[in-house]
Amino acid sequence: MLVLVLFQVNLPIYNAVPPLTLTHNEGKMSERLPLPWLLQMSIYNVKIGGENVIVRVADREATMSHGISELRQDFKSDPNPIVGIDVVNSGDLLLFYVKKRCLIIQYNRILALNDKYQVPSFLASFLQDKNITFVGPRHINNKSFTWSSVYQKFDFKTVVDVGYLAAQIRKKPRLLTCTLEELMLEVDVEIMRPIIANGSLRHKWESSAVLSEEEVKVAMYEVYSCYQIASKVIEVMQIGATTRG
């Protein structure tokens, strides 16, 4: 497994969000909101793959920490949990998926708001949890984030390409190079790629301060698909092991 660079830091888990000032292409704006408001405002209820999914979009350390705690709560009864993962546009978005919950972290935006270069300690701990297997799209091992011209990689304890996982379990080498759509056909999972209403997304939507519901669906399509494919092949493997036993 690829060894990745990790910066360990101890960042506070805020009970309240301090005053922050962000400078971006829309001009200078002051963002001062209490944590309860941020937690309510960051929730999206979306339908994808025929399921209703709770999505939290986090652009503060406090909401990111809260979202990770929610994911842990969802899989706490599973001794060997899997977590879908994806990195979009060099860290503009870091996504996790568990059961019917998705966490979308606006990672580069959080670094900008806090003027930091390091991976927060609670996120590093999550990625390094030896009990979690992270499953993502092809080349997930090489996904990284770039902030202020500094190139860094996320460090996972256990991470696997969903194509490799499917190929190993099904003993079919051709699955190694399959697209997500081809893998879904192989394992009988049906997920429609989100259709954009006007045919195209706005420029640099991934780094926007606010995501539309349509953009959230587009962002989570791959992480959701990876999780569903992995869940299906692992379920079949476990049923087969029980039958043989």
SSE blueprint:
Elements lengths: L19 E5 L2 E5 L3 H7 L1 E6 L2 E8 L2 H15 L6 E7 L4 E6 L2 E5 L1 H8 L6 H7 L5 E4 L7 E4 L2 E4 L5 E3 H9 L9 H8 L25 H32 L1
Parallel strand pairs: 4-7, 5-8, 8-11
Antiparallel strand pairs: 1-2, 3-4, 5-6, 6-7, 9-10
Helix pairs in contact: 5-7, 6-7
GO molecular function: 3'-5' exonuclease activity; nucleic acid binding
Organism: Capsicum annuum
Keywords: Hydrolase, Nuclease, Signal
Q: What would you report as the Rg, rounded to the nearest angstrom?
A: 18 Å
How far do the termini sit from each other? 30 Å
Mean pLDDT: 82
SSE ordering? EEHEEHEEEHHEEEEHHH
Query: Helical stretch count?
Result: 7
Please outline the major beta sheet: 7 strands, mixed
Q: How many DSSP-defined strands? A: 11
Low-confidence stretches: 1-30
CATH class assignment: Alpha Beta
The CATH topology name reads Nucleotidyltransferase, domain 5
CATH superfamily: Ribonuclease H-like superfamily/Ribonuclease H
Helix-strand makeup class: alpha/beta
Protein name: 3'-5' exonuclease domain-containing protein
Keywords: Hydrolase, Nuclease, Signal
GO molecular function: 3'-5' exonuclease activity; nucleic acid binding
Organism: Capsicum annuum (Capsicum pepper)
